[in-house]
């Protein structure tokens, strides 16, 4: 859902005609930049001095040894969105037909096998199984990426990666939503207003700790060749592994609200996977970028703000320019949308639980032929 929301402002670039102007040059004074819109309802947005329309580099841009994170220019991003929409639509359709919809998909068959045949109807064992199997698949395929891309190419391997990770992620998320209150209840923060407010704030902030590669939507969808990026600016100045920090924040916020043994176990598994990804991510970045990564590691930290406090990381005086960028505005909108969608998520998880097992799926004739 957040990926779809990120596409909406891109349509703003096509709403009204604009004059062609040179691309933004680093260090160019903002008062010398022309507006791209002579009038109309979007004139306030379609200006090249609007940092949400085109990212403005900080004063440290000329000293970077890695990439500037979260950079976006609506003028330069007009191409490829039709292919992106088709690719995402195809992937989500395949996910719905082959996995989600009980009459044609196999998520219900796999969950029934896991829940009843393997785990003996113990929800804790089911989430434990997901918490072991998902990291093996997700991190395992990521680790195989350098070797696999030499054989099948970067774009095809991204499709393989998504085809394996998305179904497991969907099933684990839906199972968690449906069973979050299972087990022993140590506390319940849901009816306490200040706990809800604190948890909501922490959860909202956690999404700003997404790893910057997530912003490259065309690479995520394999429309453009996926790369192993080495980032240096923005959230990376605070922590080299923002995804792990964000997961800790998200898990703590949800656990504060729902203090059951099932939720506790699930949060420990999620955080544990991301802690492992700190080591695995550094290893992969070192293999890809070598000495450049070592230089970035020297001036950044895993623990938030540690490198800043001990002087290894110097924030530029205009650091805000590295954060006031379109992807973060879209994250804010997407996060609010996800919060408002919670009742629908809970209803969907209940529907999955109540529907139960519908044996087989659309590929049964193929499996029967192979048998």
Task: Explain this structure.
The protein has 371 residues and is mainly alpha-helical. Helices cover 55% and strands 2% of the residues. A two-stranded antiparallel ribbon has the order 1-2. Helix 4 packs antiparallel against helix 6. Residues 1-37 have low confidence and may be disordered.
Layout of helices and strands, plus pairs?
Blueprint: H1 2-7, H2 81-100, H3 107-118, H4 123-143, H5 145-152, H6 154-179, E1 185-188, H7 193-206, H8 217-220, H9 242-257, E2 258-260, H10 261-289, H11 291-298, H12 306-309, H13 326-340, H14 342-355, H15 364-370
Antiparallel strand pairs: 1-2
Helix pairs in contact: 2-6, 4-6, 4-10, 5-6, 6-14, 7-9, 9-10, 10-11
Features:
15 helices; mainly alpha; 371 residues; single chain; two-stranded antiparallel sheet; disordered N terminus
